[in-house]
Fold these 3 entries.
Entry 1:
Amino acid sequence: MLRRLQDDGLQERPEGHADPDRHGRPVAGEPPTAAEAVARLDELTRRLRRECPWDREQDERSIVPHTVGEAYELAAAAHSGDDAKLLDELGDVLFQVHFLALLLEERGHGSLAEVAEHIHAKLVRRHPHIFGEVEVDGAGEVLRNWDQIKKGEPGREPGIFGDVPENLPGPLYALKTQRRAASTGFDFDHVPYDGVTGELEELEAAGSREERFHEVGDVLFAAVNVARKLKVDPELALRAASERFQERVEAASEIAGRDGHEWDALDTEAQLGYYARARIVLGK
């Protein structure tokens, strides 16, 4: 843990490492250690909280939407395979952690050090095959043990689905729900493709608007279940599919433009033809 020297968050620096300039950047010497870099970020976060009008106005409710947005950007960067972008987005999320921990500290209900110690203790507790005498046979058993240990921890909501956050995006909410059910043994031992086809048949047979609403939900839930069994994140997969669709439509519009046509003026059959050409050009 970082050893704080003063209440304003200044940190001790080992000999041989230069102090930062007025912008908080190291001016000379060896590359900073992880502890030094985290200490500078901690100091910067505190300064922003003291001196920036926007940062002073924030609380956890106003910051969390930004935290969620940064988490999605991080997920997109990880999925893209762009390591430079991943590094950048990890920094944004790290700043969110620092800022939220500072808000806890201001209220006397925690600190960055306590956040780190809490997750350290949690990870040790949930890995008894590393830090205890438990033996496991593969990753699946690790996950089952994790779920069982989690159920017995204090502060957990009662019930099978008690700790599933209701404000998650739909695909993640469905995924969490299915995982909780599976942790009780209620799960398929195969990939349930037939569940999707069965729900599609019921959707096709639905007559009323209410029935269609119900069946569309079942189709999507069944698709998430297939993704779960295939170990595919449905949220990321759906976003990737949306991005592919955007790229194809934009490419189709460009091809149509080169042929002298306005995309919006084409009928659906012509648009589909250009869309098929775009898929061939893009190779996906």
Note: The first helix runs from residue 34 to 51.
Entry 2:
Amino acid sequence: MLFKNDRPVNFCAIPLWDDLLEEQETIDSRSPHGISFSSLRWVIIAPMPIGRKKKALVHIAKEDLRLDEESYRQILKGVAGVESSARLTEEGFEKVMKRFQEMGFKGLLPYPYHPVPRGRLIPFGSPQGLESITENQQHFISYLLERLGWDEGHYQAFCQRIIKRPDPLTKRDGQKMIIGLMAIWRRQSRKK
């Protein structure tokens, strides 16, 4: 693996196997595959381009910052040295996203530095769903209530409607409440 500033760099290296066919002395019985890799010549190919999800994120940032095509291309050229997101490498992607953040891009979440619910929905009847609500779930519910500006009465009425009790007691109840509160929060933030 190649390193730059003590960080791995995404390069693709291909051994020249033709050398093996011509020179039988490169075969080494001590290596697991019978090949002495120290005697091979390697060809280093250009850095690997980023994937489609990262390209999509670059375009989302472009739209979020309301950049015209010319400004967007100037940023790509100036920061990463490319003219298209299709040619961005991992290192270039990091530089471009850092520049977009300096310009005000916050990411895909309204509050990117606050935790978000992770994982899958606990299936109905699963013993894991009957465990007590976690501290992280309680903190996240408190955060959502603060963002929504709800008082205790409003929250308990919502709980009664969703989980048929005034407060969530289990992990599954916590998930239901978080999903419901996030849906309301998204709807309210779209109206603003």
Note: Helices lie at 18-22, 52-64, 69-80, 90-102, 135-148, 152-163, 171-191.
Entry 3:
Amino acid sequence: MMNKPQDVSVTRGESGVEGTLVNGALHGGARIYADGVMLAILRYAHGRLGGPATLLYPDGTPSAQLNYADDKLDGKAVYYAQDGTVQREVHYVRGALSGDSKTYLPDGSLLEHARYRQGKLHGLLERFHGNGQLAERQLYGAGKPIEPGERYAQDGRQLDADGKPLSRWRRWWHMLPGTSPAPQ
């Protein structure tokens, strides 16, 4: 038997939660406050987080748009800088990172593109310089590097083991079919 919904407001000092209880558990929308400022708008289903959630900066602008299912992050999550620009976009499945994850610089250019499976890096990880040039690429399987990563200078030249850019002719030489490593 379902009890009648009851609106509740619990406060402690300047912080609190407002929502609706059904059978003693939060159900429907809930708002969380701290120091008198709303910091989150959440949805509950029978006491468990479920559905869209918005986290807010103290000025009221969104800091994150999340989705929950059965108390776990599930679906697309977008995190914002205080000026409203997207900082990161990720996907979750039952609380674990899964699929594409993109992190952006304040100007909106891509800083990192990674792929996850069951919460671990899986697939190609790419990081970029502020000018958009590839900075690093590394292939992962189940959270571990599969092969040595490649690093690149801001001008696009590959870096050697000491972090120094390869000269353009050495890079060209390496790309020729059937050639041995370029002379030192």
Note: The chain has a mean pLDDT of 91.
